[in-house]
Amino acid sequence: MRIELKNRNCQNCGSDKFDFFLKSKDNRFRKNEKVFTIVKCRKCGLVYLNPIFPESDLNKFYGVDFYSGSGNFLNKISKIISLITTFSFMKKIKKYKKNGRVLDVGSGLGGLVRSFIKYGYDAYGVEINDDAKPFIDDELKKKIIFDDLKNVNFKRKSFDVITTTHVLEHVYDIKSFLNEIKTNLKDDGLLYIKVPNNNFFEYKLFKNYAYNLEVPRHLSFFTKKSLKNVLENNGFKKIVFIRSNLNDLLSTPASFYYSIKY
Predict the structure, then answer these.
(1) Domain architecture of the chain: domains with CATH
(2) Cα separation of 76 and 64, whole Å?
(3) Are 163 and 104 in contact (CB under 8 A)?
(4) Residues 191-200: pLDDT tens digits?
(5) Counting C-beta atoms within 10 Å of the first and last residue's C-beta, which end of the chain has fewer, N or C?
């Protein structure tokens, strides 16, 4: 696979000043031997892939095998974790929005859409990669649109809740992505974001072999501070960080397994 890389400025603040953070290969799929560089913005602290490939090449690093691994060890563990933690997650969401219209952006195989429907929400999903289609049952497919959010013509400000779990770190243009979310979210709506925490000790322990680096599919790497900064810079307010100790307890051994394997 031929890869053309180019330098880019920080997605958050636009600065072209950065410090070297680390280098890593595609440890997961190993489709090529390219070494990718991750840097840290000197101005705002965002950690990101730089230089980077053109946005048009993004799908080269995914493909069917990104979803067809649904039977492997980590995905089996993830399903179990999801089943165990769904009640706790929904309890947190209902604290802010007891019902209403929900959009899951980057819905993947549709598990979260299914859960929201089960708990009484009018839920929909948007998934940019239609390679996920073969792994979703026909009934759930009716609730998921396979396209980029910017191409979907939902009624403006029509969702009470928008969720995006393990998606923001994959996004090529964060500002445009968050602007699309604001366009679709009600003014009093709830945005729920879940991303890997770059300050977690997994990164310090395994460095360029850390499972959650996931280069080159992960383009940005967040801490609480840098995520809050990104959200505030894009007009989001009343930011609250929540965590699931149970989720950490169950998922950490799985990610450590793959870090050690790498």
Answers:
(1) 1-61+196-228 (no CATH), 65-194 (3.40.50.150)
(2) 17
(3) yes
(4) 999 999 998 8
(5) N
